[in-house]
Amino acid sequence: MSDGSGEPAAEAPPATGRGVRIVVEYCKPCGFESAYLELANAVKEEYPDVEIESRLGGTGAFEIEINGQLVFSKLENGGFPYEKDLIEAIRRASNGEPLEKITKSRPPCVIL
């Protein structure tokens, strides 16, 4: 395929997350705000156009919805999501692919 200049057409730009809306509901008294901020920063770095919102949730909550679909639940999994799994879910959402629930999680705390 050509763009008219005789050169091959440029590949489509990488997905920026436009049209993807994420809601993270978390327990602030549990100290989960830092986990939310860390995750939000990683998401924005990878997908600058993603809309990400936080809501205060119940005790122990760290729930993530993408475009209204629950994709991760700390209440179900007992830990926090791996960033790479959330980034993959956002990629799928931005490409219009079906979302799958994230079932792997990292432990909620680390003992040093």
From TrEMBL:
Transmembrane segments: none annotated. Keywords: Acetylation, Apoptosis, Cell membrane, Cytoplasm, Disulfide bond, Lipoprotein, Membrane, Prenylation, Redox-active center. GO terms for biological process: apoptotic process; negative regulation of apoptotic process; positive regulation of cell migration; positive regulation of filopodium assembly. It is found in: Cell membrane; Cytoplasm, Cytosol. GO terms for cellular component: cytoplasmic side of plasma membrane; cytosol. It is a lipid-anchor. Interacts with GPX1. Increases cell migration by inducing filopodia formation at the leading edge of migrating cells. Plays a role in regulation of apoptosis, possibly through control of CASP3. May be involved in a redox-related process. Belongs to the SelWTH family. This is Migration and invasion enhancer 1. It comes from Salvator merianae.
